[in-house]
Each structure stands twice: as C-alpha cells, then as structure tokens.
Please model this.
Amino acid sequence: MTTTTTREASADGTQFIAAVPARPFGLVRHSLVMARRSLIKTMRTPEQLLDVTLQPIIFIVLFVYLLGGAIAGSRHDYMQFLLPALMVQNVLFASAPTGVSLNTDIKTGVFDRFRSLPIGRSAPLIGGVLGDMIRFVVSIVVMIGFGYILGFRIGTSVPETIAACLLVMFMAFCFSWMFVLLGMVVREPGAVQGLGFVIMFPLTFGTNVLVPTNTLPGWLQAWVKVNPVADAMQAARGLMVGGGPVAEPVIKTLVWSVAILLVFAPLAVRAYRRKA
Model:
C-alpha cells in the first residue's frame, strides 16, 4: 500500500513526520498534479523544447542529403527508409532530459518541499515523467511534418501511423525511468546528461537506423538483433511505410519496454525514498 507523509504534533508540541496511508487513487491524482506542474514549467520556458524541435530537422537534412544518394541512390527512397527509424531515435533522445530535470529539482531543494507534503512518495517522479511526454509529441510532430515537406509519404494508413507513434512514445516513457534512476543516484545534472548520452548513442546508432542490418559486419549484426531499439525501428517502418514485418517487432518492442519499466521504475522510486 502506498503511504504518504504528514507533519503531526506530539503532546509537547514538537512536530514530527508520520507516514499515513494514501487514499484510493490518491497517487494517481498527485501524479497528475505533478505532471501539470511539469507542463507549466515547460510552457513558461519553451527553450527547453529546442532540442526536440531543431534536432529532428537537423538529423533529417544531415542524413538524407549527406548519405541518401550514396546509400540508396535516391533521396526519396532513403527518406522512406530513414524517417520512421529516425523518429524512434529522436523520441528516445527526448526521454533523457527527464532525469536531468528531476536531478535539478533535487539540487535546488524543490523536492524537500514535496517530501513535506501529504502526497505519495513516487508522485513527483511519475508526474515528472508524464509531464515530459509533451517532448515526445513535439518531436514526432516536427519529424513527420518536416519529413512531409521534404517528400516523405506514409505508405500504410493513418491508424497504423498513429499506432507507430504510440508504440514509440510508450517505449520512450519506459526508457525515461532509466534516466530517472540516474537523476536519483548521480549528484550533478551535467553528469546525468553525460551518462545519458553514453547510454543512448550505442542503443540508437548501433541499430539499422541508417543502413539495413544485412550490410553491417557480423559482430554489429549480433548487437542489432538483441537491441530493443532496433526492434522498435523495424516496427515503426512496418507500421508507417509497409513492406516489412510488423507483428514480431511490435511484440518484441512491447516486451522489452515493459521489462525496462518493471526493472527501472521500482529502482528509481527506491532511490528517491532513500534520499527522503
């Protein structure tokens, strides 16, 4: 059962912190309030969205016009191959700043205030992750919108494309808990960001994002076959462009995502409670 903390007064007037059971659905309500706080903070400092607005554009232009002709012989064909996988990559990169933001809140003392409130202990973490999902939406909209300007076209249907976007967002939500854990155990926001890039680069670039798997050396093919991000990219291609497997990579992506969530979310909450 989830508990919250509240301040109570003893007989001699001394205040102490006591744990009390949370009301039914209280954790959900508290988490949504924290998510709203995160959204308000983002809206008041929109420069926090620069990475998810500019990075997709830079990556599309860089890879399509630098590599498209050499790899696929046609920039349009390469755009069809690249964009769904690039969407996965950019949304996963957008999940890393969640840990940085939470670590910053801890450093500035905001979480000390949260600990004094009668709310679920994990509510600030859940709310922070939910609030930062606006970054995933912005990244996807910019990626598909700019891709359409340059000639990308959906080869399946709108419902399948929406399914691909939701799948990618769910995976990014689960990956966010890895960075929440980093935010709880690492002392400096800069270190959280640095470690996040160290984790994300082999996971996102060590895939079939730029070239087909069968063109890679054997040792790298072995890594791609066990890399959950590569499964997500293959699922996104199948759902958005068609012509490839869909069911198997979708199932693998969901299984990997749930496994990551079940491992890292409890560890992150436990680390936060230790700080409390």
Observations:
- Confidence is low (pLDDT under 50) at residues 1-22.
